[in-house]
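Encode chain A's predicted structure.
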Amino acid sequence: MSKPHQGARRSYGVRTAPYGFLFPAAALFLLFFALPIGYAVRLSFHKIEVKGLGLGKGAKNEVWAGLDNYTAALTDPELLHSALRVLGYGVIVVPVMLGLALFFALLLDSERVRARSFARLAIFLPYAVPGVIAALLWGFLYLPDVSPFHYLLRAAGLPEPDLMDGGLLYGSMANIAVWGGTGFNMIVIYTALRSLPAEVFEAAKLDGCSELQIALRIKIPMVAPSLVLTFFFSVIATLQVYNEPTTLKPLTNGITTTWSPLMKVFNDAFVGGNIHAASATAVILAVATFLLSFALLRASNRRTTQGAPR
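Encoded structure for chain A:
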């Protein structure tokens, strides 16, 4: 009777072991992700009601607000303006960053490239620099008084562009994001290229295809899933831009406290003291990001399914 009992216990242990390994990750997800989201949603449906002068105990109470916070956020012109600014920023960042990442990945995958390991590390290294530090470094390079580029332009008698104001400000901040994010996307695409079967390229060379033809007609279509993944990550990072404008703000008057949607959330919550309105705006941004991500993935999956052989 002991052997069947031991076998049953061993079988039960095998069945429950995966849950034991999953428990730490599930607990961290619940504690640091799900609960804060739920708390933010709860705050977004409430507001502070002030009685009299707002002094004394019980003068300020949290009451049910319904959709008032969401209505105020959706009708706030500053949120729309910040979204449009981020849209213009993303139009520059996403295509330039992914184009450079694809170019570098194809270049490193070429057989004629020398010092491949060094080049790969050099391209990836800016990604290891924290975003705040990168923004500070580039910010001081943009300032006319301390920038060596402005010094060279001044010495040559050439005009000095103001990179911290007007339309050039978008390019300046986009440059920081491109400089820091190209290496990560390049590694993702390059890894996908290295996993492709070499027989396909050898057959293409026997048919007389050049390196450019192999890259355009074979390599890029075969790494399309990696391109979709990097595009997906880049769009989400663009919607959540915060470090670059916040860090550069003390260096210029061209960046407001609500330049990006996340800056507006921070300003409403910790400067204006309206945590409930900020929570509603944050929930709106989260839902918009989810819907956009879902739409992109749906379109990508549909295209992949249509292009798959039957």
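The chain has a mean pLDDT of 86.
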